[in-house]
Amino acid sequence: MKKTMLALTVFTLLSTNVFASASYLCITDLVSGLHHDGDRGNWKHANFLPGEKFTISERLDGIYEVKKLGDGKTWSAICTARADLTDDSFICTSGTEQFNFNRQLLRFTSFRFFGYWNGSTDSLSISMGQCFPN
């Protein structure tokens, strides 16, 4: 009985590690874009503060999901593999934001493209950063 319990415990511990899903913490290094100057009524180049954080997690079905952390705004997207690159690269799109991720290089780019074209004065931005296994 003790051997059976020991074997079951060892199997459980090993299988938990084998079947653990991948997850990453991604942090923005550089952010640039366009910002509407309400006082002057025109658009201008802008640098935004880096440090925005995202998490990427692999779901049980093998699909990756990205979530933006902080600032009270929820943003998440389901990622699809890029057919033109490799299985290690993903595009994650939700609404007017896009997040591109490369598991091999642990790099990402993020785009916000809501504003100007639709009459809105929301800032447009592109950011890049690195991801770390979580």
Radius of gyration: 20 Å
CATH topology: Porin
Derived structural class: mainly beta
* CATH uppermost class: Mainly Beta
Domain module count: 1
The CATH architecture category equals Beta Barrel
Count of beta strands:
9
Order of helices and strands: HEEEEEEEEE
User: How many strands, which pairing sense, and closed or not: the largest β-sheet?
Assistant: 8 strands, antiparallel, barrel
Strand fraction band? Answer: over 45%
Average pLDDT: 79
Shape: elongated
As residue ranges, the low-confidence spans are 4-19
Number of helices: 1
In whole angstroms, how far apart are the ends? 37 Å
Helix content: 10-25%
Strands in their spatial order, largest beta sheet: 1-3-4-5-6-7-8-9
Could you explain the architecture of this structure?
This protein is mainly beta and 134 residues long. The protein has one domain (21-133): Porin (Beta Barrel). Helix content is 13%, strand content 49%. It has one helix spanning 2-18; strands spanning 23-37, 42-47, 53-58, 64-68, 76-81, 89-94, 97-102, 107-112, 124-133. Strands 1-3-4-5-6-7-8-9 form an eight-stranded antiparallel barrel. The longest helix is centred in the N-terminal third of the chain and has 17 residues, at 2-18.
